[in-house]
Amino acid sequence: xxxxxxxxxxxxxxxxxxxxxxxxxxxxxxxxxxxxxxxxxxxxxxxxxxxxxxxxxxxxxxxxxxxxxxxxxxxxxxxxxxxxxxxxxxxxxxxxxxxxxxxxxxxxxxxxxxxxxxxxxxxxxxxxxxxxxxxxxxxxxxxxxxxxxxxxxxxxxxxxxxxxxxxxxxxxxxxxxxxxxxxxxxxxxxxxxxxxxxxxxxxxxx
Length: 206
Hints:
Blueprint: H1 2-17, H2 23-33, H3 37-60, H4 62-66, H5 69-91, H6 100-107, H7 109-118, H8 123-136, H9 145-177, H10 182-202
Helix pairs in contact: 1-9, 2-3, 2-9, 2-10, 3-7, 3-8, 3-9, 5-10
């Protein structure tokens, strides 16, 4: 029964943690709005798979990460670079022709999801922080391997559930925005803004 409880905690905090705009959920929204539903679903599956090891790392190295501010700052810098790059690429005019590899990568939601998830390791400090908080409040006990993996599996399923919900929402919205140039402009602008903001925070400009 306690295994189900820690699974539910992981699911809940992963679900709400995936809501704020970021590289992954905005990319999935864009794919769904372009009616690339199967690609978006494979993208979401890849994100959920990577969430598992990142959450596990966050739990395993909770104390070590919390005493190494430089590591957290590097994660923030990586996220800033990824979001800015993807934002710029979204805003660039589409080319009619592309190389075979680029086309396959673009059409493979799973590969793209894996690549962007690996390059977006903010889940590690996120799970480090939330796990530390839950432990401090006495709400969770991950003293056994089974409990740890129940919790981490919950984080993976929670991320997948939120992303599939976004796909369903965007699929219903797609007929009203199909063919609009704003499909690329809005997600690209949001990602670029988030990336610039992350750079500003990283360099302590505000």
